[in-house]
Structure formats: C-alpha cells, structure tokens
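Why does this matter for the project? Reviewers at the last site visit asked to see concrete outputs rather than summary tables. In response, this paragraph embeds two records directly. Each consists of the residue sequence and, immediately after it, the corresponding structure tokens. Nothing has been edited or filtered.
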Amino acid sequence: MTAKKCIFCGAKADLLCDHHLGWERMRGQMAKEAPNLVLLGSSHVPLRYRKVHTCDAPLCRACAVRDGCMNFRLRYLGSFSDTIDYCPGHDNFGTIAKEITGLEAEAFRSAWRKAANAARGIEVSTQVDLFGRVPI
C-alpha cells in the first residue's frame, strides 16, 4: 500500500477499498496461451484472462464500511484471512461485468480521490510538474 492516510479523514490507513470498477482482458497472456480466444466477446472471456480493477482507496478502520471476511486454510501452509471493505460511498459490490481499460480505472480512482479530498476541504492540484519549476 503506497498511501498511508485515509482519504476521508486523514488518519492512518490500514485498508483498501474493494469496490469493483470492472475488468480488463489480459491480451498479452491470452495471445501467448490461447490465441483462439483473443477475439471473443467480453461475456465469453475466461476468468483466468481477466484482471479485476478495484477502487483501492486507502481507508482507516473507522471510515471503512465492512462487508465481510474471507478465511483461507491452506493444507500445509497455514491459514490467513482478508476483509472486504468499501469506501462510505461504495456500499455495494460494484459492477464486475463491465469491461474497462486500465486508464479508465485510473481516471475513476483519480476523480474519486479528488472528490473525497474536496469533501475534507483539501485542494489538490491535478497538474503535475515534472521538472520542479514553479507554476506560472
């Protein structure tokens, strides 16, 4: 996890939002392993060739809407669990049936974080200065 602060309150973030934005087909892997599947319609692409995009907004435990817990028990490797958490505005599972690109997912994440920061009263510039110059 790269961000350390919750986007809603600014506290220490322990979780990431699991809201589904959509999925993207892994064209390179499909072309290598199953070239006959590359031209399939989006409803027929096998799950192993789909990369699921989620919101991934950093959340603290107080702001997260907890939806459940998954427990995994591996025969000789022990067990672990993972929680399913959403942003306060993402109280549902989302749409996993929608095919999107990675750029569309990143645009949604950027707009969602900008709206959350605006609700907190933080003005964040979307302009990035690559060379360290002072903006005019």
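We now turn to the second protein, recorded in exactly the same manner.
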Amino acid sequence: MWPEEESVQFLDSGVKKLDTRKPGRFYNFMIDRTFYFQHDICYCSGIINVITMIAQVNHPVNAPPGYRTEDIIDVNMIPLKNRDPCFLFAEERSRLPEVKRTAFSMGTPFSMGNNHTMHHEGKNISFQSFVCDSVTFDMLGFQKLRENSASGEAYYLNGQVLRELELAEDATTFPFYGQQKP
C-alpha cells in the first residue's frame, strides 16, 4: 500500500531538501589536501614527541653521576652480623696486587645510601647519607668545598640540601631530625 500523495507532501514540506549537486574537482582536491595535511601534522607531531621522550629518558641514564665509578667494587656486607669478617675480607683483598686500597662505608651511591626524609619548617626534605672514611671519600672523588665544623664529627652537605634547608654556606650546624648536627 502506497501512502497518498498529499500525506507525502505534508511530511516533505517541513524538510529542507539537500543539494545533490556534486562539487567540482577543486573542491574535492582541497578536501583531500586538508585531510592529508592534518594527517601529516599529527604524524610529525607523534614522531617529535617520541624523539623528545627518548632524549628525556636517555639524558639521565647517560649523564655523568658526579662521582667516580671506574675500578671500584662495592661489596654489600650488611648480611653479616659481625664486623670481623668485613675486616678480614678487606685485609685479604688488600694483599692482592691489583687492589690499591680498600675502604669502609655504610651506604654508597651504588647502593643508594641511607635514605632520609625529614620534616623541616613545613616541608619534606629527602636526601641520602653515606657514613664513610676519608679513603672512601677520596675513592669516589668527592671534594670538600668548605670545612665548617671544628669538632671531630663532620657532616658534608651538597648544595641541594643547603638550599632546601635554607642554610648559609658558612653554617656550622644543620637540623637533622630535630637535633643540631655539626
């Protein structure tokens, strides 16, 4: 059954008819070019982003660490409950002709040291500490820029910790978990 012609005209009267003329060649060319241009921009942006991310990841991996790393062996002695085997191990190693010197430390940059996070004047400050002797200090190539402590006990702080604690370069003490350390 076909609807009557009048009812079809009534339904069609409120609908705007589409222009069915086909656009010319220039119009099709511009639509295609615009699509490809946008596609090319997205593609190039993706490549640039990947290159940037690779550079950002590779920079810290390949950057110099700030201490000597060649010809140093870091041996973890933490599992030993007694210190005597540590001293015996160091003595035996120092007898070897290829070993120039041995040193002791609690934490090294290789083992990530002893992590500390303390609350100071409303902000959290994180840093690492290494308890070591002067031989370790020298082997790693650390340099003292200033000597502010007159006592036998000494803590050496890097520039970042000085800035975060808001200390002057000639400060003789610094706050460490609520205590003043030399």
